[in-house]
Amino acid sequence: MRRVGALGFLVFKLAVTGLFVYIANRSLHETDLSLVLGRMRMSSVVVVVILGLLGVIIHTHRWRLVLRARETDVSFGAALKTFLWGNALAFVTPARIGELARGLELTEEKASTALSVAVDKVFVVGATLLFGSVATVLYFSDAGALGGIQRFFPPIQFVSAGLFLLLFSFHPAGIRGRLFPFARRLVKWWHAFPGIHCATGRQVFLWSMMAHLVLIVQTAIALDMFGNAGFLPGIKTATLAYSFMVFFPFSIANMGVREYAFSLFLSGSSSISSSEVAAICLGASGAIMLVNMLLPAVAGVLWELIDGRWN
What we know:
311 residues, mainly alpha, 11 helices, 72% helix
């Protein structure tokens, strides 16, 4: 049964990935793609790569803080190695679920390391939602701009961001005794999070916000590099797109979903013709995936292979 379930899950994620890739790129023309690729500037490529490296450093530091809060103090090198290996695991699984095994070599307690990764990822999602809420207010201030799937996005966005703030602002220890056993287990898991009621939680929250800000700027530069979209429209597009992607975590490496989200908000925030939007979003998405996911994943695999050979 497990093999059947795993096969079904694989078929599902491939189908979802293929569907979004088709939807995002069905209007793509070869001439538009050639035009967009011809706009690439080496200076922008260098900045995108540097910001990608900076993002890895920030994410690694936050991961180390989360581990320390969970009473697993490791060096920056050990945290970096497991973070890169987690990228390799996440790259081939929908919703990056394989990343839960990121820190298995740091502790023998599988449940503890999975919880540490969950804490880390929830902070990432929270930062994404909070940035997205601000951008949502600015983007949707004109009620006439709402249409299609965009009509449902603002309320879901605000409710999700509010739940995140509630989760990390409220200390649950005082209500444990009033709950049923199952609910008490959930609250115990909740209490394991380094919420913003403690110093470590505030540091993790701050580094999460910094990491997402770097990603937003990096994406805006990539969008501008491929489409001359302008930096500010790119900032708004990236912020909204990543927040939108939180609710569609099922494709492999976010392929298709990323391009679709970019095009959804770029087409309404710049003067670029619709015929070029698909090519611009494909180029920017490819650059982000290469720098932020594929290269760290390859580095993680190589590090594991080298360690395995010499140890």
